[in-house]
What we know:
Number of strands: 0
Low-confidence stretches: none
Strand content: under 5%
Number of helices: 22
Helix content: over 70%
Distance between the termini: 46 Å
Structural class: mainly alpha
Order of helices and strands: HHHHHHHHHHHHHHHHHHHHHH
Mean pLDDT: 84
Amino acid sequence: MIATILFSSLAGLLFFSVPIGVCLGLATMAVIFFADGGPPAVILARSVVTGADSFPLIAVPLFVLAGDLMQHGGMSRRIVGFANSLVGHIRAGLAYVNVLACVFFAAISGSSPATVAAIGSNMIPEMEKAGYSRRFSSALTASSGMIGVMIPPSIPFIIYGVTAEVSIGKLFLAGVVPGILFAVMFMAVARFILRKETTITETSEAFSGGTVLSTFRSSFWALLVPVIILGGIYSGMFTPTEAGAVAVVYAAFVGLFVYRDIRLSQLPDILAQSALTSGTILILVIMATAFGRVVTLAQIPTQLAEAITSFSSNPILILLLINLLLLVIGMFMETISSIIIMTPILLPVATALGVDPIVFGVILTVNLAIGFCTPPLGVNLFVASGISGVSIERLSLAILPFFVGMLVLLLLVTYVPALSLALPSLW
């Protein structure tokens, strides 16, 4: 009864395009007030308070603000320039530059849409000038942007770490190897697509050590961000939450006084934009916490686990079913709320199969990151489409070759846990 009211209310509200945070809160209230034997009304208030009262969660608005400051501070442009000096002269080099720049910016922003916006606004016009089709450039940028939530620091990893009560530092490390593998895959798929393309041109200048050194100096302060953040976390100088504060101060200093791409008059607008993004995320988090509490009290995770395990006792098949479920959820639900809702439901099933919680965090994040690139809720598609003017329909078709590569690597991450555990085991 409780599950029926909860999920039917949620589905009905989503159908009428009610904001997801409001959907979660109203669905929880529907159970409290209309379900026989439902939890007491006070649980909503308590869950909202406890959901917001989390020190690690403070890292989310801090990294959002840091990412906005870095994007407006000229860091993305200098990163693109450095990546171009490394591989721009190679055949199909700008495609490699696009992916490499996404990797560098991912280590700064922690957000997939922010990565697409920052790199796409620079790379899509430049690739079009060099003869790449706008459709291909947009699809590559939307795909590569998913690396933004895999390379640390990652906002979804922070949310999962808070929800699952596992080490955020280890989650950051766990995403490095899969993130690099996805970058290599995107480059390989791009090269395959462009193998017979005759209209593209390489960077006019040949490879030059002097150019590399010059662009490295220009982008040095941007490239130093992940060194400071991750070095500080893993050396024990500060926690991931404190790292967010360090990133904000550093980004503001570099943008205002080193690169001077940010003016003091721009700070109120940047702060307002970050506050709007952070507020949306935090409302999702606290409402999803209450929703998750009701889900747990209704023993839905236990029932789902029993249903999945009764379908098959084969761990390989069960993990495949979990992946299919998460892929579908990623197509229709926002990432942060998906993590908070699905973690208490699916993590017990995964751990019962012997899956390490750190590995499951990577599996969950990769699945939902793929959702950034798939309609109807593919945020990366909308950002890339807004930059390039390519329709969502055409962009969705152009992204299919990259999507196939994503699925192959998803299976690899799922069934080869050593890929995710290689670095955390050293810390």
